[in-house]
Amino acid sequence: MKYRTKLLTVLLFIPLPIAALSWGQTQLMQRDLFHQGENGVNTYRIPALIETAKGTLIAIGDARHDSARDLPGHISLVMRRSFNRGEDWEPMRTIQEVKEGGVGDASLLQDRSNGRVWCFFSYGPPGISFWNAVPGSATGPTTLQVRAMHSDDDGANWSMPVDLTAQLKKPIWQALFATSGTDIQTSTGRFLVPLVVRDEKGVIHSLNAYSDDHGETWKTGELIGTGTDESHNVELKNGVILQNMRNGKSRAIAFSHDGGATFDSVTHDAALIDPSCNAGITRYRLGSTDVLIFTNAASTQRENLTVKLSYDGGQTWPVARLLNPGPSSYSTVIQLSDGSIGVFYERGNAYPAEKLTFARFSMDWVKGRR
Predict the structure, then answer these.
(1) Options 183, 330, 345, 346, the catalytic residue
(2) CA 160 to CA 148: how far, in whole Å?
(3) What pLDDT digit, counting tens, does each position of 142-197 carry?
(4) Known catalytic membership, residue 230
(5) In a 3-state reduction of DSSP, which class is residue 25?
(6) Cα–Cα–Cα angle for 281, 284, 287, nearest 5°?
(7) What's the CA gap between 125 and 330, in Å, rounded?
(8) With 0-12 CB in 10 A as exposed, 13-18 as middle and 19+ as buried, what is 248?
């Protein structure tokens, strides 16, 4: 398939409706970036977010043109950028599309060594999804594919995508894809990109792809548990990797002592109730503050997008604040360079796929302080 990357640089900013009072008054600001039905798109889903070394916010989502369905639906990747920490945003533009099949489920990672921003995403050839892809081929027209592209100018331009599938997929596996959201680079410089695999028996597992040469070559770690799904990871103070995974009505967790390749046994965190949905996790460090931040739809249904804090590496979550009380779904969370926190998430009035919203707030807001 031929890909077309649009290289248009847009300098116009569009003020967006404010879903709260000003930043100084409430310590909470929200901007709705993508609305269902806009630009002729049926549904926007699947948030990915990163702040570059220069302070540019890049927000990417799925433009699901004809319906809300997953790949191989007609899906393109669309982006908006902000140069003032989310107050104002450039107009939407398409950064990846295909003539047949679809692309989606983007995740973003920044290389600290050079500022390069990586975007990982799935390509579904015509008729091919996670559920009907077949084993036997490392890549090709019957295989759901993992692709990567990068930007060296804060998302103004993107490279042509590269197919990573042959490096990541065992031929006996039926399918795999990269979890959407925000990925990490560890203290050793390793890229960690969470994957979801459907193995030779059709069983779903979490695992990680990793690169120790800045994205030139890739390997995959071991399968993490059984029935685990979309996941994210965070590096703790001692260098241990905590993997937080979608797996039923509470989050599954596992720990790695070798940089995310192999893991101890999987357990469940009863404090992290979950509707079996993608979630966000990050490590926040500023001065003497060193905490984990977790965001998810904290319910058995896709609702109640909540921000939680852990001061002990994820053992307990004593602080929680509701960000969106209505229908809510996928989310990703990052620390911003000014010490505030950014969350990009799905929300709506009747159901959670009505819009993609960026929220920015302070640590004091999470703790309930004004």
Answers:
(1) 330
(2) 8
(3) 999 999 999 999 999 999 999 999 999 999 999 999 999 999 999 999 999 999 99
(4) yes
(5) helix
(6) 175
(7) 24
(8) middle
Q: Which amino acid is at 284?
A: Y
pTM of the model: 0.93
Both structure tokens of 280: 């966000």
Query: In sequence order, what are the residues at sequence separation of 6 or more whose Cβ sits closer than 8 angstroms to the Cβ of residue 203?
Result: 226, 227
Q: 95-99 long-range CB contacts below 8 Å, 24 or more apart?
A: 95/5, 95/6, 95/60, 95/119, 95/155, 95/158, 96/3, 96/5, 96/121, 96/149, 96/158, 96/161, 97/3, 97/4, 98/1, 98/2, 98/3, 98/123, 99/1, 99/2
Contacts (Cβ under 8 Å, ≥6 apart) of 238: none
| pLDDT single digits (tens) 102-136 | 999 999 999 999 999 999 999 999 999 999 999 98
Contact 106, 97 (CB under 8 A): no
Residue type, 311: Y
d(CA 43, CA 62): 8
Contact (Cβ atoms closer than 8 angstroms) between residue 256 and residue 307? no
Report residue 337 as tokens.
Answer: 């360079």
Going 51 to 53 to 54 to 55, the CA torsion angle's sign is positive
* Residues with Cβ within 8 Å of residue 230, at least 6 apart in sequence: 179, 180, 194, 196, 206, 245, 246, 278
Token readout for 214 is 């800045």
- 51 given a catalytic annotation: no
Tokens of 218: 């890739």
Q: Is 70 a catalytic residue?
A: yes
By DSSP bridging, strand 181-182 and strand 102-110 are parallel
Catalytic member of 62, 105, 230, 274:
230
Sign of CA pseudo-dihedral 182, 183, 187, 191:
negative
Q: Which helix (H) or strand (E) holds 185?
A: strand 184-185
Instruction: Write out the DSSP string of 98-152.
Output: ESSSEEEEEEEEE-TTT--EEEEEEEE-TT--TTT--SS-SSSTTS-EEEEEEES
